[in-house]
Amino acid sequence: DSVLVANHTETGLAVIWVDNTFGSWQYSCNTSGVSWRNFIGDIQYGHTFPELPLPDKATLLLAHCRIRFVPELYFNTELDLQNQPRPLSNRPSILVRGWDNTGLTQGRS
Fold first, then answer.
1. CA end-to-end distance (rounded Å), the chain
2. pTM, whole model, 2 decimals?
3. 8, containing H or E segment
4. 25-44: b (≥16 Cβ within 10 Å) or e
5. Residue 39 to residues 5, 84, 85: CA-CA distances in angstroms?
6. Helix (H) or strand (E) holding 58
7. How far from 70 is each of 26, 27, 52, 84, 90, CA to CA, in Å?
8. Residue 89 in 3-state DSSP?
9. Residue 41 — φ and ψ, nearest 5°?
């Protein structure tokens, strides 16, 4: 897929879905990478709704931001607890779309 870039200096990603079954997906947009935040959907009236990002409630990250997965204790991406190969459908995953830095920012409307 190609990404159409408007006249903006920095592009990035729209994170539209994360699977936190075996840990937590996090992002950091500071240059030192010392503070990380969990992905969430949208905050309304002090409550998180939906709990995770959605296509219409994406987390928008500029190109300098970083993403990481923090697994649960003893989690192995390749093997399950019975030491059997873990299928691709049962591994941590994240869904992103290209973002040209236009439209709303920080998931706020």
1. 27
2. 0.71
3. none
4. bbbbeeeeeeebeebbbbee
5. 25, 30, 28
6. none
7. 8, 11, 16, 22, 16
8. helix
9. -80, -100
Gap between the Cα atoms of 33 and 41, Å rounded: 22
pLDDT tens column, 75-97: 888 888 889 998 888 888 888 88
Which segments of the chain have a pLDDT < 50?
A: 1-7, 42-45, 48, 106-109
User: What are the residues facing 44 on neighbouring strands?
Assistant: 47
Is the link from the previous residue into 50 a cis peptide, with omega within 30 of 0? yes
DSSP letters, 41-109, are --EETTEESSSS-BTTBPEEEETT-EEEEEEPTT--SSB-TTSPBPPGGGS--EEEEEE-S-S--TT--
Residues belonging to the chain = 109
